Structures are given as C-alpha cells and as structure tokens.
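During the first year of the project, the team set up a workflow for recording each protein of interest as an amino acid sequence followed immediately by a discrete structure-token representation. This format lets reviewers and collaborators read both layers of information side by side without switching files. As required by the reporting guidelines, we include two representative entries from the current panel. The first entry is reproduced here exactly as it appears in our internal archive.
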Amino acid sequence: MSDTILGPLPLWAEIVTAVFVVMGAAFAAIGSFGLVRLPTFFRRIHAPTLGATGGVWSMTVATIVYFSVQSNGLFLHAALIVLFVALTTPVTTIFLMRAALFRERQKGSDVPAAAQSDQVPIPKRMAEEE
C-alpha cells in the first residue's frame, strides 16, 4: 500500500464529502448556539450533546467517503470514532445532569424531588435512634 495521493476525487465524491462536512459543521454550530442562548443548565446541556453527536456522524461519513474513494477500498477506521462518541457522550451527559441536579437540590432550588430509587434507605438501627 502506497501513501501517495492518487489525484483529484471524482465530482460525485467531492459533492458528497462537501455536503456531509457542511452538515457536520452546521450541527456543531447549532449546538454551540444552543449552549450560548438557552437560559438554564438543564436546557443548555442538550444542545451541544446532540450537536456533537450529529456533527461527528456527518464528519465520519464524509471521512469514509473521501478515503474510500481515494484508496479504492472501503475505509471503515473512522467508524471507531462514532462508536466511542456514541458510547461516551450519553454517559457523560447523564453524569453531568445528575451532578447538577444534586447540587440544585442541595441549594434548595425548585427541581424535581429525588426518585424513590435514588434515596438511600436508613438502616433500622439508625431510624430507631432518631
């Protein structure tokens, strides 16, 4: 396998790549605007998460098309990026939301009460002492 560039892409591949790159940039921009414009943390957290996910998917499709056409073979290495983003973004968002919700409850803000499953049961001995 040589590392030389084979030449310009066919027109259809350039168009597909350009469309997906612009879509990825648009998703990222919309997520950024949502981060800046939305009023509370709980509303703000969704825009960049969705924007990042959509942007990464679009950029990955553009990368796969570009390098597959350039190397005359299927280039799926970029799909690993989507896999890692799809696994880590929701988990990170959940942890951030739970931490913010905990902090708001500690301050006594008007947020939903903790679910029954989130409350730690008091052992029977400690309840009798109170």
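The second entry, processed by the same pipeline in the following quarter, appears below.
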Amino acid sequence: MRYMMLIEPDLERSPREGMPSQEIMDEMGKLLEEMTKAGVLLDTAGLRPAEEAVRVTSDRGKLSVVDGPFTESKELVGGYLIAQVKSREEALEWASRFLRVHGEEWVITVELREIEEA
C-alpha cells in the first residue's frame, strides 16, 4: 500500500518564522533516514509558498488560470510524503511520529490518502 501524506501547517497558530527550528529539522532528518532504511519513504518535499502557486480549473471544458495567493482558501499544503507501508495503521504510526517531531509549538495536520493503484 502506498500513502500520500499531505502536510498542512496552520501558519496562523504556529511559529511566526514559518519554518521549523534547526532542532526540529535535525530530528526530522533522523526520522526520514529511519523511514528510508525501513524501505517506507518513497519521496518527500516541501512546497513553495501559495503566493507562487497557480490554479488551472476546467469548468465544463472552459479553462481558467488564477495566480496565487488564494485568499478564499484557509488550507495550505506545505509539503508531502509518499510512504510504502503494509497497512493503514502503519501509515498512521509514521504520520504520528512525524507530528510528534514538531513538538508543542506547531499546529499541523497530516492528511493520509491511500494512492489508488492503476
């Protein structure tokens, strides 16, 4: 089973600098190394700010393009992680460990979505 973990920080309720401390980044590096050695981590990355994004929408065949930021959206996907796991429970455990690394100062949601196999 493959899962995509969508990482959604609440920037209004998290540290103002918008980036985790060096200590958190070091702990995250250790977790990602463990996931890699366990054969779980397939890919991960942070995403550029929403201000740099662009949305392309098809409304019944008519395309529209809108540059960010998107003021109507309160959700922000800050990054992603793709994991190869044996079960949903294993995916939940890795997501929980990811969140615990951030400690008490960050407010973050990780949305787990199983990747549908073609």
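For the second entry, the following points were noted during internal review. The chain has a mean pLDDT of 90. The two ends are 12 Å apart (CA to CA). Both points are flagged for discussion at the upcoming steering committee meeting.
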